[in-house]
Design brief:
Elements: H1 2-16, E1 45-54, E2 63-64, E3 68-75, E4 77-82, E5 87-91, E6 95-97, E7 104-108, E8 114-123, E9 130-131
Antiparallel strand pairs: 1-8, 2-9, 3-6, 3-8, 4-5, 4-7
């Protein structure tokens, strides 16, 4: 009887189960503009996860990130431009390995607001963004 019940439950769960999948979205030793990622010394590591919402047509201020960060665009379209004129256009589902210590800005260039989730990796207390004056 127990064997029958085990077989019955196994068949029910296998029919309704959805297999988990995994996909590497991006893997690199360089940021999106091909600048090599510098060696990091994490003596007191801290990870910060931020959701950034940018209204359609809005352009962020010039800024830079002194620490490693990666993002994933969840809504809209985002165009990133560096001071050197390098351009990256992100669509929904695109990842970004962001530039470090490089002046840049993002602009919501799609037909709806843009939203990006960004993960910053540094030492406790490190600034994640510096604005250009």
């Amino acid at each position: 009887m127990i064997k029958y019940l085990v077989a019955l439950f196994a068949s029910i769960f296998s029919v309704n189960a959805v297999a988990a999948t995994s996909e590497v979205l991006q893997k690199s030793q360089a940021s999106w503009n091909n600048t090599p990622i510098k060696q990091m010394n994490l003596e007191n590591p801290e990870i910060t996860v931020v959701r950034i919402q940018i209204p359609k047509g809005e352009k962020l201020a010039w800024h830079k990130h002194p620490i490693l960060n990666v993002g994933y665009l969840t809504k809209g379209e985002l165009t990133v431009r560096t001071e050197k004129g390098e351009v990256l256009v992100l669509k929904v589902g695109d990842p970004i390995i962001e530039v470090i210590d490089t002046w840049h800005y993002g602009e919501s260039t799609g037909t709806e607001d843009a939203e990006i989730v960004v993960v910053y990796v540094g030492n406790k207390g490190d600034a994640i963004t510096e604005l250009k004056e």
